[in-house]
Amino acid sequence: MIKKKYKKRRMDNELKELLAEALGIELKCVGCGSYENIHLAHKIPLCRGGKNIIANIEFKCKKCHRARRRKEEDRKYYREYMRNYWRTHLEQYEKHKQRAKQWERKHRSKSL
Q: SS3 for the chain, per residue?
């Protein structure tokens, strides 16, 4: 799977204020209500198919934005961990089934 790289663009405060004014909302964090270190965040991240459209944009402070990213990274790590866990256990199960079939064939021929 090829991973797309997205360019991170910085938006200065004046542009954020203009955007907030155009949307008719206050320039504050939707998570905690803070007015400092405001970031422009995507509700659905670009890496998950989100678009750069106004309906997908929200303002978050640096702390809330990073917390969400950390949760997503944790989820990604957990998914990868479980995928590897089940992959190894399924491989072991398949080997066990093969050994059981071989044992059964071997002992059936002796009993007949």
A: CCCCCCCCCCCCHHHHHHHHHHHCCCCCCCCCCCCCCEEEEECCCHHHCCCCCHHHEEEEEHHHHHHHHHHHHHHHHHHHHHHHHHHHHHHHHHHHHHHHHHHHHHHHHHHC
pLDDT tens sequence across 19-44: 888 877 788 888 888 888 888 888 88
Domains in the chain: ranges and CATH? 13-111 (1.10.30)
Q: What's this model's pTM, rounded to 2 decimal places? A: 0.52
User: Each residue of 1-17: pLDDT tens digit?
Assistant: 455 565 666 667 778 88
